[in-house]
Design a protein that fits this description.
Number of domains: 1
Shape: globular
Number of helices: 6
Protein name: GTPase
Largest sheet: 4 strands, mixed
Strand content: 15-25%
Strand order of the largest sheet: 2-1-3-4
Length: about 110
């Protein structure tokens, strides 16, 4: 089983700079709670990085444009998907991700798979 994390953001340097600016200027309206939980303003959250590196699960991370280009399907983003034998299913939906108030909630949810 592989977990696929899809951020509600597009790839590229300009998009990254716009996202950083948005997180600084108006963080309460930023539309990717997965980004908020797993990244500090400029880099990956250290606790998340350790969890990810120590995890028993294979994990892949995509911006929405990269994911849709590769898999040719769309979901409501952000989302965490489970891939088994080429089949994709939602493991953590957008609404559940949006309900998480802390990184610990995300980690706890993943740890239950």
């Amino acid at each position: 089983m592989k977990l696929i994390f899809v951020y509600n953001a597009d790839s590229g340097m300009i998009n990254t700079l716009l996202d950083i600016g948005h997180k600084i200027v108006n963080p309460e309206t930023y539309t990717c709670n997965l980004c908020k939980l797993t990244y500090d303003t400029f880099k990956e959250n250290a606790k998340w990085k350790k969890f990810r590196e120590d995890s028993v699960y294979e994990m892949e991370f995509f911006h929405r444009d990269e994911f849709e280009g590769r898999y040719k399907v769309k979901f409501e983003y952000p989302v965490v998907l489970r891939e088994d034998n080429g089949n994709l299913e939602e493991a953590i939906s957008k609404s559940l991700l949006e309900s998480f108030k802390s990184l610990d909630e995300l980690i706890d949810s993943i740890s239950k798979f």
